[in-house]
Specification:
The complex is a heterodimer of chains A (894) and B (117).
Chain A: H1 4-12, H2 19-42, H3 47-56, H4 60-70, H5 87-104, H6 106-135, E1 146-153, E2 158-161, H7 165-174, E3 178-192, E4 198-205, H8 209-213, E5 219-220, E6 235-238, H9 240-247, E7 257-260, E8 263-270, E9 284-287, H10 292-295, E10 304-309, H11 315-332, H12 334-337, E11 341-346, H13 347-352, H14 356-387, H15 389-397, H16 402-438, H17 453-479, H18 483-489, H19 498-533, E12 544-548, H20 559-574, E13 579-585, E14 595-601, E15 613-620, H21 624-627, E16 632-635, E17 649-653, H22 654-660, E18 670-673, E19 683-689, E20 704-708, E21 719-724, H23 732-742, E22 749-753, H24 754-761, H25 763-797, H26 799-807, H27 812-841, H28 857-883, H29 887-892
Parallel strand pairs in A: 4-9, 6-8, 15-20, 17-19
Antiparallel strand pairs in A: 1-2, 1-10, 1-11, 3-4, 3-7, 3-10, 5-8, 6-9, 7-8, 12-21, 12-22, 13-21, 14-15, 14-18, 16-19, 17-20, 18-19
Chain B: H1 3-25, E1 31-32, H2 33-43, H3 52-65, E2 68-73, E3 81-86, H4 88-112
Helix pairs in contact in B: 1-4
Classes of the chains: A alpha+beta (894), B mainly alpha (117).
Chain lengths: 894, 117
């Protein structure tokens, strides 16, 4: 027999019947239908027809209409006690009621919604960054199987070093667990011929590079294995951006020949839009095509190696295999491979690794901000619940169930938080625009940050969860009281005593504790950032203009030709009005580490393999140290007299002097690059210069050596530095013109001031610092508002008492102390808890700190004082108001 | 008579008389809903029929007015059923309704001349 009960229940669902009553009706009606069904069967109807006949009895609309008329609802209020059969109808009912409540009280609603919007908006904004940068898979096929393989030379301070070509070849040939490995080396190209000369960043890659990534060219084809051989003719792949910019997206470009670095390259294809590896800077790719000599090289560590694991191979397995191979190579080539391991890192981690800790900390921080917002709104709700005691008491007296009341309250709080979420979404949208401009440029996915469906889902989830979190306590609080007492008392201060007050106090303490944690975190970062900014980079960045001028090799094949170009360039630029001096260098500090070279020192034993003396080496023009204002501590500068006909000379850094010749007179000492083969290899130290932070302000300076381009041509100077009397940026076009007067085809790129480079080198730290400071600021404001709110409420509640005290002659000061004392007690308790929490939590940010420890006592103390001061003001204002109360009015207040 | 009017009148008649029918049927003995519906259909030879959707709401309404009273009764070997019996109040109402119905029918008959045809 069909189950009629369910049918009946479904049809009665919208009537909001009292559950027990509904059950009775369901039973009765179901029996009737049973009888109808049986009779129909006896009359010869089929089961289906009988069923239809029975259901027809229920005549839907009529049933509901008639039932509604016959059944008086248990109560007209939306909080009538009812069963769970009618969740949706209840919800709609509650929602309408909640909307009415909010309309009645717009000020409350606005404050609550703005508070929540700040919290939710911050979360949405940071989550969308995290979503794009950390959670989105990389845009390659099965990206989780892609890894980078590094040489590991921890003893020399290179835990992940760029491998040599020979090691790469051995790894590639000896492994079993990789689908393949591809090598890449950064390169740059001067594109000349049609249009302005242009400097292009690019990469030389193995033919297997694109297949390994699983990305096909947009048009044309990738490289063939044959093209990845030396002397197989030049071919090139273009980026989509370059193709659009330079060739107007003309498909006919495939097969054309481009002039790169003075040689002809045939275009074989164009990569798809948005293809990037690993950053969007690369615009051309050519085959790496190792010569036999290059492929056997175990000394030059310059490659990056991409690998794809076979399906099902774990990182640990691959790592174990690579370690085995590396150990074998150590034994095979002790001279070059001693202490040289191999280490793999997932590509994703490699790309986002640097910013990950900062992002996770920010995500934690905005979570805390949201908690504070919740605490604030919960407090508001508590205060309001107290006002609504009487309404609740009446409902309970009329038979409303408490669980049902709680649901009504939660509907209201979720409505509030959802509104907050909507406004928060708008805040996040605006915030992201700002945020994006703060994200360091080298985080390539930053451009893609947007609010997608995942972010929307997150916001919705957070909003609803928020509503439940801040709504639950006040809801439970609201319905937990003695209704008789409330009704008797006229419902004024039922929730003021006992547990209501305790809950509010707890919330304030929690707010203070959480803000303290955030503020200390921000304080530590600000402290670090200031210290970082105050690090002496070793040079003066003011009034320096820089640009990259890379001479194409075919055109300037001979060192002499390049040397002439530099002399000519420096002379022309220096003669420009507004220019004080000009110089060239292989690499600018804080932009590129510079080339590292192994050296020998006269009179010192040859270091054992794996412990070579590594020196960062820059090849410069004479005026470089002066132009950069790098002070000379001892000896003399490089001069025009130091030429290829005279003794090779070098200026070394203090660190190099101290490390290689501790306690000795350095000037006059001799070093050589690599092993000394003849007397001519010796380079004499003529001076000692102050240390320069070459790559990162927070890295200790490494040994450093300056050579002149007139004597050494193994690295090319690439960067021009111009010291100006005027705003350096204003000199850019004049300098550019001077370059083109020498060679109209010479590309110029990266025109920037040194101050910009300096600022960019700490952009990441600035980013984390600024954001955390903003969030901590928001937290502080919210906490202050929270304290103020609770204090105002508590003072208002005690107006009567204060009035009596004043009437009995209490001094203003006494009353003030009384009122503030309560607030300060809470704040101090919150600070105590917060200090403990901060002590435990700030450790997670130790990697972001510079020059301060995660438990820096000064920061802890100062921030605590700041918070106490803010809290004191927030409690003082309402307390002050209390003392102005006219005792007569206060007494009448009852 | 236009169809619509006839249908309307029919409904009104039924509604006005339905209370009377139900009260009458439970006058002698308590009856359950199905029984009441069945009796109405049988005794009217199928001309009057109440479906669940109209019968039970009516029963509940009468019950709420205090004219009838429902009680769950369990008989051996059967499921429990809700039997409705006439209350004292209901008895008065029934008497009054019977009277007025009688008067109403007589009035109609007198006008239409059916009885004296």
């Amino acid at each position: 027999m069909p189950d009629w009960k369910e049918e009946v229940r479904r049809r009665l669902a919208r009537l909001n019947l009292e559950p027990a009553r509904e059950a009775e009706i369901v039973e009765e009606l179901a029996q009737h239908l049973d009888d109808v069904y049986e009779r129909s069967l006896k009359a010869g109807l089929s089961e289906a027809e009988a069923k239809r006949a029975a259901l027809k009895e229920l005549a839907d609309t009529e049933l509901q209409r008639e039932m509604r008329r016959s059944q008086k609802p248990a109560s007209e209020a939306p909080v009538a006690g009812r069963g769970r059969t009618n969740v949706l109808a209840d919800f709609l009912h509650d929602l309408r009621y909640a909307i009415r409540q909010q309309r009645k009280n717009p000020a409350f609603t606005i404050v609550a919604v703005i508070t929540l919007a700040l919290g939710i908006g911050a979360n949405t904004a940071i989550f969308s960054v995290v979503n794009t940068i950390l959670l989105q898979p990389l845009p390659y096929k099965d990206p989780e199987r892609l890894v980078l393989v590094w040489e590991e030379n921890a003893k020399q301070g290179y835990p992940t070093d760029t491998p040599t070509a020979a090691n790469f070849g051995d790894w590639r040939d000896q492994n079993q667990l990789f689908e393949g490995m591809a090598a890449m080396a950064p390169d740059s190209f001067n594109l000349t011929g049609s249009g302005d000369p242009e400097r292009l960043e690019g990469r030389r890659v193995s033919a297997s590079f694109f297949p390994l990534l699983g990305v096909d060219p947009h048009i044309g084809r990738a490289f063939t294995a044959a093209e990845d051989q030396p002397n197989s003719g030049h071919v090139v792949l273009l980026s989509y951006g370059l193709w659009q910019r330079r060739f107007g997206g003309d498909a006919g470009v495939v097969g054309k020949t481009l002039n790169l670095n003075g040689a002809g390259y045939t275009v074989v294809g164009v990569m798809p839009p948005r293809f990037q590896f690993p950053t969007p800077d690369d615009e051309v790719w050519v085959p790496i095509a190792f010569t036999q000599e290059q492929a056997a090289d175990r000394n030059s560590h310059y490659l990056k190696v991409l690998g794809r694991l076979k399906p099902g191979v774990t990182l640990a397995q691959a790592q174990a295999e690579m370690s085995t191979i590396a150990t074998r190579l150590q034994q095979q080539y002790p001279k070059t491979n001693t202490d040289l391991g191999a280490v793999i890192t997932p590509l994703h981690e490699q790309i986002v690794g640097d910013i990950k800790p900062a992002l996770l900390i920010l995500l934690g921080a905005v979570g805390l901000v949201l908690l504070i917002a919740c605490a604030n709104v919960a407090n508001l709700l508590l205060a309001r619940a107290a006002v609504r005691q009487k309404e609740i008491a009446v409902r309970v007296a009329l038979g409303a169930r408490r669980r049902r009341l709680i649901r009504q309250f939660l509907t209201e709080s979720v409505l509030l938080s959802t509104l907050g979420g909507l406004v928060g979404l708008a805040i996040a949208y605006g915030g992201l625009v700002v945020l994006k401009s703060f994200i360091p440029e080298n985080i390539s996915q930053a451009r893609a940050i947007s609010i997608d469906y995942k972010v929307l889902g997150f916001t919705l989830l957070v909003s609803v969860a928020t509503g439940l979190v801040f709504g639950l306590a006040p809801a439970i609080q609201a319905v937990r009281f003695n209704q008789i007492e409330t009704l008797k008392e006229g419902g004024r201060d039922a929730a003021t005593g006992g547990s209501g007050k305790r809950l509010r106090s707890l919330l304030v303490m929690a707010e203070v504790a959480i803000s303290l944690v955030l503020l200390i975190g921000a304080g530590l970062l600000i402290n670090s950032f200031l210290r970082l900014r105050n690090v002496d980079p070793g040079f003066r960045a003011e009034n320096l203009l820089t640009m990259k001028i890379v001479l194409p090799e075919p055109k300037y094949e001979k060192w002499k030709m390049r040397s002439t170009f530099y002399s000519d360039l420096i002379q022309r630029v220096q003669s420009l009005p507004g220019v004080k001096s000009a110089a060239v260098t292989t690499n600018l500090p804080l932009y590129s580490q510079g080339n590292s070279i192994g050296v020998s020192i006269e009179g010192k034993p040859e270091p054992p393999p794996g412990q070579e003396l590594i020196v960062t080496t820059r090849i410069i023009s004479n005026g470089y140290l002066d132009t950069m204002s790098i002070p000379l501590l001892k000896g003399r500068q490089l001069t025009d007299q130091d030429t290829d006909n005279s003794q090779n000379v070098a200026v070394v850094s203090e660190t190099m002097a101290r490390r290689f010749w501790p306690g000795e007179e350095v000037v006059g000492k001799r070093v050589s690059i690599g092993k000394v083969r003849s007397q001519e290899d010796w380079i004499q130290v003529i001076g000692v210069a102050k240390d320069v932070r070459q790559f990162e302000l927070n890295d200790d300076p490494k040994p450093q050596m300056y050579l002149t381009y007139r004597q050494f041509g193994f690295f090319d100077a690439q960067d021009l530095v111009v010291k100006t009397d005027v705003d350096p940026a204003s000199m850019a076009s004049a300098v550019r013109k001077a370059v083109w007067e020498i060679d109209k085809d010479q590309p110029i790129s990266n025109i920037r001031t040194m101050e910009t480079i300096l600022a960019e080198s700490i952009a990441r730290q600035r980013f984390s610092m600024l954001l955390l400071a903003i969030f901590a600021g928001v937290a502080l404001v919210l906490a202050a508002v929270g304290i103020y709110g609770v204090m105002s409420y508590s003072v208002a509640q005690r107006t009567h008492e204060i009035g009596i005290r004043m009437a009995l002659g209490a001094q203003t000061m006494t009353v003030l102390k009384l009122a503030i004392g309560y607030g300060l007690k809470l704040v101090l308790a919150g600070i105590a808890i917060g200090l403990i929490a901060a002590f435990a939590l700030t450790r997670v940010m130790s990697t972001l700190l510079f020059g301060v420890t995660a438990t820096d006592p000064t920061t802890f103390a100062l921030i605590s004082l700041l918070l106490i001061a803010v809290a004191a003001i927030a409690s003082y204002i309402p307390a002050r108001r209390a003392t102005r109360v006219n005792p007569i009015i206060a007494l009448r207040y009852e | 008579m236009p169809y619509k009017l006839s249908q309307m009148l029919d409904r009104e008649l039924k509604k006005g008389s339905a209370e009377l029918l139900i009260l009458s049927l439970v006058e002698d003995q308590p009856r359950h809903g199905y029984d009441i519906g069945n009796l109405i259909e049988r005794r009217s030879r199928g001309r009057l029929r109440f479906n669940v959707a109209s019968l039970y709401p009516l029963l509940y309404r009468l019950e709420r007015r205090g004219w009838i009273q429902g009680r769950w009764v369990e008989k051996a070997g059967q499921r429990r059923r809700r039997y409705y019996r006439l209350t004292a109040e209901g008895r008065k109402v029934l008497a009054a309704q019977r009277n007025s119905w009688q008067e109403f029918v007589e009035a109609i008959n007198r006008i239409t001349g059916i009885e004296h045809a």
